[in-house]
Design goal:
The protein is mainly alpha-helical. The protein has 5 helices and 2 strands, in the order H-E-H-E-H-H-H.
Length: 119
């Protein structure tokens, strides 16, 4: 309930039109699959309730978009997010950089789609 309430509050405050969501990928730690899947379901439901377009990208697509290399390391993603957003310091915790990278990727994807529709 907390994820829904806080996300819904942010959506209502900032009124975005699009939400970027990372596609699930479990390679090593499969034990986190169920709780992460449940949280992701709440996020997608919140987006639907608020009539947001959802852009889903794999971790590799996000890394490719932000760093230019789909197999970039966590440190490379953090570095590029910090530079692209002109942050005074790297975001903490590391998962914050992943969320910001997904947002950057979503912005690029939506911009590309908009330009294709214009041309």
């Amino acid at each position: 309930m907390k994820i829904y309430t806080e996300l819904d509050t942010l959506i209502k405050k900032y009124q975005p039109e699009v939400m970027g969501v990372e596609k699930l990928f479990f390679n090593r730690n499969v034990t986190t699959a169920i709780p992460v899947g449940q949280a992701r379901g709440v996020v997608l439901l919140t987006a639907a309730i608020n009539h947001l377009q959802v852009v889903e990208r794999t971790p590799m697509q996000i890394k490719e978009d932000v760093t230019g290399y789909g197999k970039a390391t966590k440190d490379q993603v953090i570095y590029m997010v910090t530079k692209l957003l002109h942050l005074p310091a790297p975001p903490k915790p590391d998962d914050t950089a992943d969320a910001l990278a997904a947002a950057i990727c979503t912005t690029h994807c939506v911009s590309s789609i908009a330009w294709r529709n214009i041309l």
